[in-house]
Amino acid sequence: MIVVSNISPINYLVLIGQIHLLHDLFGQIIIPQAVYRELSDAAAPLPVQDWIADAPDWLKIQPVSQPSDEIIDRLDPGEGESILLAQTLDADLLLLDDMKARHVTTERGLVIAGILGILDQAAMRQLVDLSTAVQSLQQTSFWVSDQLLQRLLDKHS
Questions:
Q1: Which InterPro entries match (predicted)?
Q2: Which domain holds residue 47?
């Protein structure tokens, strides 16, 4: 399975202490250079900077060779490169949360999942206590509607 990730799922999984879920669910994760730079940036949370500085061997950084286009250029560099890399690799899954990027991704026929989809899959495989993970996620800057969150929790209760 080829899985490409943008910064958001990695960032929040590190912050809630559940980054291992990416490897547990998908094995290898591939990120473009722009995502690596964002994770390493001084503006990133310190736990995220520390994690990427000593990244596990299941995380692969790959340059993007496909040229950008007008639509991609309107996105954040990490999101744009993630979409281009997923297209180039014919990825099975692209991990990202940003709504604008998700819209572009679905228009291009790519399969996507965000942090809630990852936690949902992990809960179905009994890899995480969903309620605890969601509580931790709510203590970060991640925003999700109460209705969506409640539907996810109800699904696993």
A1: PIN-like_prokaryotic (IPR021799)
A2: 3-155
